[in-house]
Amino acid sequence: MTVSTHNTLPHTGTTEILCYLTLKNKFDELNKLSVWINNDISTLFKISERTVFKVDLILAELIANIISYAYPSQCESEIVIKCHYFQDNIRIDIEDSGIPFNPLITPDVVLPQSLEEADIGGLGIHLIRHYMDEGTYQRKDNKNIFSVRLKI
Amino acid sequence: MTVSTHNTLPHTGTTEILCYLTLKNKFDELNKLSVWINNDISTLFKISERTVFKVDLILAELIANIISYAYPSQCESEIVIKCHYFQDNIRIDIEDSGIPFNPLITPDVVLPQSLEEADIGGLGIHLIRHYMDEGTYQRKDNKNIFSVRLKI
Amino acid sequence: MAKLEIQESDNGIKQVKVIGRLDILGTGEVETSFTAHTAGKKEKVIVDLSELDFLASIGIRLFLITAKAQAKRGGKIVLLNPKPLVEDTLVTAGINLLIPIYNDLELASDDLNSAVSE
Amino acid sequence: MAKLEIQESDNGIKQVKVIGRLDILGTGEVETSFTAHTAGKKEKVIVDLSELDFLASIGIRLFLITAKAQAKRGGKIVLLNPKPLVEDTLVTAGINLLIPIYNDLELASDDLNSAVSE
Ligand SMILES: Nc1ncnc2c1ncn2[C@@H]1O[C@H](COP(=O)(O)OP(=O)(O)O)[C@@H](O)[C@H]1O
Ligand SMILES: Nc1ncnc2c1ncn2[C@@H]1O[C@H](COP(=O)(O)OP(=O)(O)O)[C@@H](O)[C@H]1O
To answer: Of the CATH numbers 2.30.110.10, 3.40.50.720, 3.30.750.24, 2.60.40.1090, which one belongs to the domain with range C2-115?
Structure first.
């Protein structure tokens, strides 16, 4: 019996996979993040290149935002990322103790119609919301807990 | 970055894997069991051939015993097997609703010294106890819950 | 995580190939060089994306900076041969409406040559 | 899941190769044929385990049945070339003290020829 290399986990039984990663709120930690996604997650979950790309993009945008905006400068903190694989879904939980911020309720960016009026920025949350299948936000114990679900 | 094919999961972060399998108490279900171990578990956990063999042996003996001895004949029931990978350990939980039986407290078989006195049988529990690193037994809600831990 | 290959041909078109990942770190590595080569003066620029594996908003921002600069100067930038997942991100961000995307070098060159006066 | 290959040579030794898995299902598949070939009459038997991938107690039981039968009849059975994991199981079950295990065909044959009278 052979196992194909992507988009299918073997499935005689039921499988649930949890991967955790803790990052400091520093930009040079983002290297670990992409290694984790493109190596660990991709190998373990056996998801398609497209799904890996989505996870990569959503996390790159979210974590960059947390590092950029969530903490006063010089404030060291930790961001905890949990990836959960279960029955055709990936759930990603991101937990930070920065200022309260719910990425689901910011008004959607108006995509510019010409180069002249184009704003340099504001695309991150738009991309996140486009690529996720479902998102939930909670503020609990002084923490932001943002969860994203992706169908695979 | 390449991932070796056994004995190591990639480990930028922390990984936890759960695999579940439910079997009926019938001998022809044992085929599913060995496919599950040698295909799903072996691929997902990336454990060595030796560890796969141990898991295979422990489960083959335990499930065969449950099917053989735990239920009155004609009584259909379910056996739930959970394999849990976390930080250099595999924990296997086996749950059945057969008669109370604790495989940890049966007296150890006396290995025969000659063919004449050799008993045909009684080796299953001896092998299980030899190959596991730790075992615990609970009777709960009219169920046997036997847990085995293996270092990897 | 990212690097550039610059190629200037005698037809006055500058090709910049972006290789690797344009996430925060990759973009940080190439942005000074990228803008120096593409945004400093009026230019016809093809950004070859055939070996770009990942694109985040920070990378899109880099293309927009150049495109805005060239629009002001009377030059132009176009994108060439993005991989499907990168193209999907560009379209999702609406960039295809601001910077043309081509899958053919000749069409890309024709666009630049007719749009930009000598 | 398991099958047998039987080979009778002119030196009076019967070789039985067991291929696959001797778990409950595999043992069920071959046990009738195995005992028919090895336990029915006085015999010199080499059980070739070089292609046996898995061995559970039910398979060990099968070897013991033949070994006991041959002991009674004045014949003998030996095991040849188990893979390391299978050998480990045999040793853990103490079978090596009851049925000799060889990693060399000639030594196995010598044992049988000297132990079993014609
Ligand atoms: N974790 C966060 N904490 C506080 N503010 C945030 C956070 N994430 C995003 N924001 C705010 O939302 C805005 C839009 O974010 P985004 O769409 O990623 O675009 P950009 O980062 O380019 O501005 C940011 O400019 C910032 O003001
Ligand atoms: N799940 C079970 N429920 C009840 N009795 C059991 C169970 N498992 C094992 N036993 C008892 O323990 C004995 C020893 O089991 P084992 O060591 O596997 O050898 P064997 O099955 O060859 O007898 C069995 O004969 C049976 O009486």
So the answer is: 3.30.750.24
